[in-house]
Write a structure and sequence with these properties.
The complex is a heterodimer of chains A (152) and B (405). Chain A contains seven helices and four strands; from the N terminus they run ααααβααβββα. Chain A is of the alpha+beta class. Classes of the chains: A alpha+beta (152), B alpha/beta (405). The interface between A and B is large, with 35 and 50 residues. The structure holds flavin mononucleotide and FE2/S2 (inorganic) cluster.
């Protein structure tokens, strides 16, 4: 995010401490992660140390503090999804993206992560791509979905 | 049709009939009602009358801990404070739970009317729905619903406003004091209790934190009256409960059922015919083995539950199940207190070592001692309740924990 964009987000929410999370969430929404500059800008506006902002941000798994791709894929690894075939989904994703867990494709389009139960257990295996949920996954469906994201 | 197929169709329809009967008996949360009309009726009663009704209904928290709702509201009402808050806990992170998501999607009005009823009773003026970040896809609808009700509250001069706050992927933020820390712009680390949120909560002011489903039941008690609600349960647990059913189940999804059923009754309907264990109440609940199905009651008189029911059939290795639980807890422990932070890691390493044979089977005694110490020494219920799944699985499925299967 540019300096002005960050300033704009801060302006809409205000700088009381209770607004720290909403501000970080909105700043992170554009690039899917928070840069060091973002954290410093927010810290200045809230009049707290950058270390404190980092401490808060790094607590939350959806507030990424390291570079991620445009589309962050989070595959549910918790028991119900795991029992309904999460392993095959992950293998397929690794194969077609050519990356391992925790990595980002060289074109910075996709990052592949795992996540804990996200509330779609009866419809597993499930995954999130940014904010969108995909459930009842099969390896074939995964291929289709990724193809569609490649064209975006 | 072959004889077998005929038999199985007959069985299915018998199961379906049973399920339909139960669903009918506890059809509250998903019944469509006119919430605006109901709200007008609520305002015609006095706050004292409403508090008496909620208390008498026997309604207990549906978020897992089962605290009596009337008592909680009374405490918040009596606590001194310049401002009071109502928070709807929509963080729903317990593995195997997704009923709050379905209630939020299908009945958001009931949740807000429940919050407004609480505000009317406790004199709270601000309400927040704290929803997990993974449910961001429905933010727009929930926000619009908040706006709609805020307009109505303003028109009626009802001094209460509600808004949406999002979590960002931390299971522990479902714990009410961690939730409040998170809303305050901090790391979601639980506070020591007491003081409880009802006396010192958000902004250190009296705060009622209630689960999505609890608030929806408040609305239905106001609509249907006490007697109906009380008559729903099969024992004295009071009312219905929305269950999230997943795992090796013949029927999966969200079902509202009477409280007080036995696990056997539940498995007869939802099982796939080969159920060997049911995890009742998510990862922090108990793993009930087949031999205890008939004697275990689901409800406040038996095992308490936030509604997560995960079924395991005989093809599943309970070692892998327990390992999956421990990986979850190791990752989601907030790391603030040593017993939970180190305990979760050591339990996982411990069962792995036993499996690989680098530790003797007697190592289980050390691990049980550790989990029991976590039960008394951890700062919050995350570390405290790990003994539930750990002890129940290692007690009933010990051979599976050690064998190479
Ligand atoms: C680790 C942990 C996670 C929790 N997660 C949730 C949750 O996701 N949703 C919820 O309503 N309550 C959760 N709770 C329980 C809350 O602390 C609190 O008891 C509840 O929100 C109170 O509402 P109720 O009385 O209506 O159930 C959790 C508790 C613990 C210890
Ligand atoms: S186990 Fe995957 S969404 Fe719950």
């Amino acid at each position: 995010m540019t300096k002005d964009d960050v300033a704009e987000v801060i302006k809409t929410h205000g700088t009381e401490r209770t607004n720290l999370l909403p501000v970080l969430q909105d700043v992170a929404a554009t690039h899917r992660f928070l840069t060091e500059e973002d954290l410093v800008r927010v810290a200045r506006a809230f009049k707290i140390s950058a270390a404190e902002v980092y401490s808060v941000a790094s607590f939350y798994s959806l507030l990424e503090t390291q570079p991620r791709g445009r589309f962050v894929i989070r595959v549910c690894r918790t028991i119900s999804c795991s029992m309904s075939g999460k392993g095959n989904i992950l293998t397929k994703l690794k194969e077609i993206l050519g990356i391992d867990l925790g990595e980002t494709t060289p074109d910075k389009r996709f990052s592949l992560l795992e996540t804990n139960c996200m509330g779609w257990c009866a419809e597993g295996p499930s995954m999130l791509i940014n904010d969108t949920v995909y459930s009842h996954l099969t390896p074939e469906k995964v291929v289709e979905i990724i193809k569609e994201y490649r064209e975006r | 049709m072959s004889q077998d197929a005929e038999k199985s169709t007959a069985k299915l329809s018998k199961v379906e009939k049973k399920l339909n009967l139960l669903k009918k008996r506890a059809h509250l949360i998903f019944r469509n009602i006119d919430c605006v009309k109901l709200f007008n009726r609520i305002l015609k009663k006095t706050p004292d009358e409403i508090l008496a009704t909620i208390t008498e209904s026997g309604l207990r928290g549906r978020g897992g801990a089962g605290f009596p709702t009337g008592m909680k509201w009374k405490a918040a009402l009596e606590a001194p404070g310049a401002v009071k808050y109502v928070i709807c806990n929509a963080d729903e992170g317990e593995p195997g739970t997704f009923k709050d998501r379905v209630i939020l999607e299908r009945q958001p009005d009931k949740i807000i009317v429940g919050m407004a009823t609480c505000a009317y009773v406790t004199k709270a003026t601000e309400g927040y729905i704290y929803m997990r970040g993974e449910y961001n896809f429905m933010s727009k609808e929930i926000k619009a619903c908040c706006e709609k009700w805020n307009d109505l509250f303003e028109k009626k001069d009802f001094p209460f406003r509600v808004s949406l706050r999002l979590g960002s992927g931390a299971y522990i933020c479902g714990e009410e004091t961690a939730l409040i820390e998170s809303m305050s712009g901090n790391r979601g680390e639980p506070r020591l209790r007491p003081p409880f949120p009802v006396s010192e909560g958000f902004n250190d002011m009296p705060t009622v934190v209630n689960n999505v489903e609890t608030l929806a039941y408040v609305t239905m008690i106001m609509d249907d009256g006490l007697d109906f609600f009380k008559s729903v349960a099969k024992d004295d647990s009071m009312g219905g409960k929305v269950f999230s059913v997943s795992g090796d189940a013949a029927i999966k999804g969200v079902f509202e059922l009477p409280l007080g059923m036995t696990v056997q009754e539940f498995v007869d309907i939802f099982g796939d015919g080969d159920t060997k264990a049911v995890q009742v109440g998510g990862f922090s609940g108990l793993c009930v083995p087949r031999k205890h199905f008939a004697t275990t009651i689901i409800g406040y008189r038996g095992v308490q539950t936030g509604g997560s029911m995960i079924l395991y059939n005989s093809t599943r290795s309970m070692y892998l199940v327990l390992k999956n639980y421990l990986e979850f807890f190791q990752e989601e422990s907030c790391g603030q207190c040593a017993p939970c932070r180190i305990g979760c890691q050591q339990l996982l390493l411990g069962i792995e070592a036993m499996r690989q044979g680098t530790r003797p089977l007697s190592h289980i005694d050390k691990l049980r001692e550790l989990v029991n110490v976590m039960g008394v020494a951890s700062k919050c219920k995350l570390g405290m309740s790990l003994a539930n799944p750990f002890n129940s699985i290692t007690e009933h499925f010990f051979e599976e924990i050690c064998s190479k299967w």
